[in-house]
Amino acid sequence: MRYHAVAIVLHWLLALMITASFSLGLYMTDLPLSPMRLKLYNWHKWAGVTILALSALRLLWRLGHPPPALPAAVATAMAPWQLILFRATHRLMYLLFFAVPLAGWAHSSAMGFPVIWFGVLPLPDFVPVDRAFAEAVLKPLHAGCAFSLAAAVLLHVGAVLKHQLIDRADLLARMWPARHGDPR
After folding, report:
1. Which DSSP letter does residue 55 get?
2. Helical axes 35-64 vs 80-111, angle rounded to 10°
3. What does pTM read for this prediction?
4. pLDDT of residue 173
């Protein structure tokens, strides 16, 4: 059984945005202070706030629209530890969809740099200005959560590829946009 089109769009949109934001975060941190670096930081913050909003929308959608059950052949073929890891990884990713941007927002606020979404909508400071706390706690928290999300995503993608290529269970089709006229 396929996922609903809304779930598919949110899944792939968030996958693209999280990958781009993570890559941008890796790239921009090593740049010398310059107008380009400041521009990239703003883009990274805009992406983070957008990811946060889309994650909230995705969670609300998911609460009202449970995902389709795993195909019986896949569920019975999986070892109990694989089912536990499958569920735990999904829960961890949902947690980190929120933790990463919130930690980044808190870091920006504690550094005294406001978050102005797309340069138009100023967001409230998440925490009071405290640069020492920002550098010692919030910056490593944001980075640690981001790398944890990257690891969970790699585990998720690896599991999908394993089931797709080795087990020949067509799980990817459940989350892939249907072609016009394709009843799947």
Report:
1. H
2. 140
3. 0.91
4. 86
Domain residue ranges in the chain: 5-175
Residue that has been written with the tokens 């585990």 in this structure: 155
Helix intervals (H) in the chain:
5-28, 35-64, 72-77, 80-111, 131-133, 139-161, 172-175
Name the amino acid, one letter, at 8.
Answer: I
Distance, CA of 26 to CA of 168 (rounded, Å)? 35
Rounded CA separation 50/134 (Å): 22
Beta bridge partner(s), residue 116: 122
* More confident of the two residues 93 and 177: 93
Q: Which residues of 30-53 are buried (b: 16+ CB within 10 A; e: fewer)?
A: eeeeeeeeeebbbebbbbbbbbbe
Q: Phi and psi of 122, rounded to 5°?
A: -70, 130
Token digits of residue 26: 């890796």
